[in-house]
Amino acid sequence: MRFLSHAETMRLFQRACVRAGVQIAYSQGFNPHQRMSLVLPRSVGVESDDEILCLWLKEGQTEIDAESLKSELPNGIEIVSVETSQAKSIPEPISARYIMSVRWLGHPFPGGQYIDDKIRRQIEEILAGDKVMVDRRTGENSRTKPVDVRPFLESIKVEQDRVAVDCKISQAGTIRVDEILGLLHLKTADLTGPVKRTGVQWKGL
Fold it and tell me: Is the domain of 114 the same as that of 187?
């Protein structure tokens, strides 16, 4: 499921709700659509175990049959809990943790050397700087613009065979997974599994 895009994940939930008989409210206008929001978009290829899906129900429906909805979802997507809310605004993410299991971290790689010290030095250099600039791709024309991602980095830690990155999320944005890997000079081939997003902190929950 991690290879689904944000739009594909939304369509998956839209169809599951129809099959489960969940009465979702529709937007107004010439192109009405189901009112739902997967609050924190996830990068393709990234696993996540801490998501919030907000659904606006039709007038008169006050609850969701969670078991029916669960039965319509594919393996790899699990509903942990369902709650109703009278809040006028949806929760806002304010921070998240990304976990990357790194090949050879904590073990000698071919040649008998260790990469721990190299990564630790890189982390110290990143966190010591007042600014950390990355070239961010924007739009479909593949243009790039320089972005200072230092305000979004709370901490970067080496934990046994993995690197844990705590990131801030705000109206100004956040740091992207590919940017984190680039700062650490890591490629996907250097990882033993997918990057996982976890421990999301929410405002207004």
Answer: yes
**CA–CA gap between residue 56 and residue 93 (Å, rounded):** 19
Parent domain of 189: 92-203
Report the C-alpha gap between 124 and 142 in whole angstroms.
Answer: 31
Say which residues have a Cβ less than 8 Å from residue 107's Cβ, sequence separation at least 6.
Answer: 114, 161
**Tally of domains in the chain:** 2
- Locate 166 and state its tokens: 């705590």
pLDDT per position as a tens digit, 42-95: 999 999 998 999 999 998 887 888 899 999 999 999 999 898 888 888 999 999
Q: Give just the sign of the alpha carbon dihedral 47, 49, 50, 55.
A: positive
pLDDT at 115 over 70: no
Between 198 and 87, the more confident residue is 198
Rounded Cα gap, residues 31 and 106, in angstroms? 54
Which pTM value belongs to this model?
0.88
Q: Which CA distances in Å does 84 have to 24, 72, 93, 98, 167?
A: 13, 20, 19, 29, 29
What local confidence, expressed as pLDDT, does residue 108 receive?
Answer: 60
Q: Are residues 124 and 182 in the same domain?
A: yes
CA distance linking residue 37 with residue 176, whole number of Å? 20
